[in-house]
Amino acid sequence: MLLLLIFICLPNAMGAQDKAVSKPNFEVHRLDYYISISEAALKDVTSLSDLYPDYEAAWVSEYIAVEISTTYKGKIQKVVNKNELLSPAQKELLARGDTGADILVKVDYMPENTLTHNEQKEMEFRVKVLPQSDAQYPSGEEALNRYLKEKTIDKIPDNSFKGYDLTAIKFIINEEGAVEDARVFKSAYQTYENKEVEALLLEAIQHMNCWEPAEYADGTKAKQEFVFTVGNKESCLMNVLGIRNAFD
Question: Residue 44: is its pLDDT beyond 50?
């Protein structure tokens, strides 16, 4: 996959490398590396496919065990079933689990295939329960964009970005709404590096005002990760950032 993505991206990058832009595009995105589900949707879960829409039930010939685990009052609890459909006990566990706790699913099964010798397999996936409300910058998106434009975009020398150049700053908004763990994202897909621009972007993110933190329905606050991208959104780097959707 790595070689394929590089092969696809390289011709585009080479063809656009001499096209400079006066001022680059910029945007803030929420990140989500996990399989995820909303709090509202979790209440209606009845099957593994509800938890994970890409779950391939057709791969399974026979279920040996389906274990669902999460934390309750800080302790891991598990309930085992032998079906893709969740048992009443499994549904109850999901309903009483700690707010924001990840859900771990382990499936032991016999695969559906035409092999003479069929061996038992195991698959595992983790589901993150999303907060009811995402972290928000004070006064909203327009205020955030004004701040970033003033502190970064207006100060970047003209034509610092060419073609598919892109710089990304990842950061976390913690439970108090403060910025933590701000850092420049590095990847094998990245062909552009400008230390002066990176330092400018990083400083602006580190000195932002406190946000309204992400929050679950019961009022529990949660950390949430974001990325500030500057440059061409068609860059291959966008494919490996873990972006869920644009900030809104």
Answer: yes
Greatest CA separation found in the chain?
67
Sole residue written with tokens 């990842």:
170
Mean pLDDT of the chain: 88
Take residue 104 and report the two structure tokens written for it. Answer: 């771990």
pLDDT over threshold 70, residue 14? no
Q: Are 176 and 212 in contact (CB under 8 A)?
A: no
- What is the spatial distance between Cα 197 and Cα 194, in angstroms, rounded to a whole number? 5
- What are residue 18's DSSP bridge partners? none
Report pTM.
Answer: 0.81
Domain 35-130, CATH number (from 1.10.287, 2.30.110, 3.90.640, 1.10.3470): 2.30.110
* Closest by Cα among 50, 46, 116, 111 to 81: 46
pLDDT in the model for residue 2? 46
223 CB neighbour count, 10 Å cutoff:
16
Alpha-carbon Rg for the chain, nearest whole angstrom, is: 22
Domain ranges across the chain: 2-33+133-246, 35-130
